[in-house]
Design a protein that fits this description.
By secondary structure, this protein is α/β, with parallel strands linked by helices. It is built from 12 helices and 21 strands.
């Protein structure tokens, strides 16, 4: 499997963005997060183009939680995307990156009063209502600031076809949004419309991540149509100006993965929206989406260096070799948290004959298994390994567990590399610590 601009050079070495992975490892050190800038831009354009071809007014907002960095935000903005944030930190980075505040959507299942004050004071484009009690608190923040705050109501539709609980964000088994079935969505719309300091700009829902089949989106859009029809019986003038379908299409983690093209996702969302929802909205209603993982996951390639190798048990073709690298769960906890899979390639021989059964581990003082049971070419101490589809929820989930320092983020494009997040230093680790 090769993703984006990845290819094997004439010297047999895996390349990305026109750069040798071995040369990148030598220049920037390991562990290191690489991002294929051209592939990220291609994905941004694919979403904009697909939805613009199906609805005249669209809002594509990058879900920053997939990979948050000012450089990534600047890139998304340059391709015509807005930004979806979930914290004061993310919103601050968005503003620092030059994002117009009206292009920022603020999410979160619990937003503190300080969060709400910050969002309102900085003219956030929309705050998404996720529970009933925050409606009054958003209104109070707007009153304190002397403003009318636009909001969207996040509804929780019950739909079928969402089997993976790790990703599902609708139904009674999740904490997200306001239930359509149990009346919370209707109550939220009523309450928001009764608040003079709030303006209901739209309806939002989020289904899941890593979807390969889009019938749930058609079902959810139909449920949104029901919610609007019901609300308009009580509020005949209520016509939302925006409807946002959150969540996203799947990406390739295994070579056998075959996520449907962006156009199929656009057909599912825009088609049902045009039929079941748009007639109940304002004449100039905008259709929104919030891709995150699918924008950045396949563009990401992590580099590690093999530090040591331990053979387990007597010699045999199936003897496991524990390959311990210079990173670990502090820079990619996804396997331990979610059982996530990433393809692993040897930088100097990415399609070499498998000779070794390897379980790749980190150097933290616990099992710290990153990539178990991989058939790889014979590895040597000092080899560089490349981890594919590592662009989403790796940088953002990194930590200083056991005092390890966060790795740098490097954008690669047209044979050049740029550090966009430098490697952490010990001084950074100590900067927030105070002596007794």
């Amino acid at each position: 499997m090769l993703l984006g601009t990845q290819h094997v050079g004439g010297d047999g070495v895996l390349r990305i963005g026109g750069c040798s992975t071995l040369e990148l490892a030598a220049e920037h050190g390991t562990p290191c997060y690489l991002y294929d800038e051209a592939e990220i831009r291609r994905m941004c354009r694919a979403y904009v183009d697909a939805f613009e071809a199906r609805w005249p007014r669209i809002d594509v907002s990058y879900a920053c939680k997939a990979f948050t960095a000012p450089a990534m935000m600047e890139l998304a903005l340059s391709e015509g995307l807005g930004l979806e944030v979930v914290s004061v930190g993310e919103m601050s980075m968005a503003l620092h990156s030059g994002c117009p505040p009206e292009l920022i959507t603020y999410h979160g299942t619990y937003k503190t009063d300080a969060d709400l004050d910050f969002a309102v004071e900085h003219d956030c484009g929309a705050i998404v209502v996720d529970n009933l009690d925050e409606i009054g608190r958003i209104a109070a923040a707007a009153v304190r600031a002397g403003k009318v705050q636009p909001v969207m109501v996040r509804v929780n539709p019950t739909v079928g076809g969402l089997d993976d609980p790790k990703f599902r964000t609708v139904g009674d088994e999740t904490k997200f949004g306001l239930s359509i079935d149990h009346g919370a969505a209707a109550e939220a719309i009523d309450r928001v419309l009764a608040e003079p300091a709030l303006r209901v700009d739209g309806i939002h829902f989020h289904l899941s991540s890593q979807l390969h089949e889009f019938t749930p989106y058609r079902q959810a859009m139909a449920r949104v149509g029901e919610v609007l029809a019901d609300a308009q019986r009580r509020h005949p003038d209520f016509r939302p100006r925006r409807v946002v379908a959150g969540g996203g299409r799947g990406v390739r983690y295994y070579p056998t993965d075959a996520p449907p093209p962006v156009e199929e996702w656009a057909d599912a969302i825009a088609g049902t929206f045009a039929e079941a929802v748009a007639p109940l909205c304002a004449d100039d209603v905008r259709l929104g989406i919030e891709p995150g993982r699918s924008v950045v996951a396949e563009s990401g390639l992590m580099l590690y260096t093999v530090g040591t190798i331990k053979a387990a048990g007597p010699p045999s073709p199936d003897r496991v070799h524990y390959v311990i690298v210079d990173g670990g769960l502090s820079d990619n906890p996804r396997h331990l948290m979610y059982g996530a899979h990433h393809e692993v390639k040897l930088a100097r021989d990415p399609f070499g004959e498998p000779e070794m059964l390897a379980t790749i581990c980190g150097r933290h003082s616990e099992p710290d298994i990153l990539f178990p049971d991989r058939r790889l070419p014979a590895l040597r101490i000092g080899d560089v390994i490349c981890v594919q589809s590592a662009g989403a929820y790796t940088v953002n989930m990194a930590s200083n567990y056991m005092g390890f320092l966060r790795a740098p983020v490097v954008f690669v494009k047209d044979g050049e590399s740029r550090v966009v997040v430098r490697r952490e230093r010990v001084e950074d680790l100590l900067a927030t610590s105070l002596a007794l």
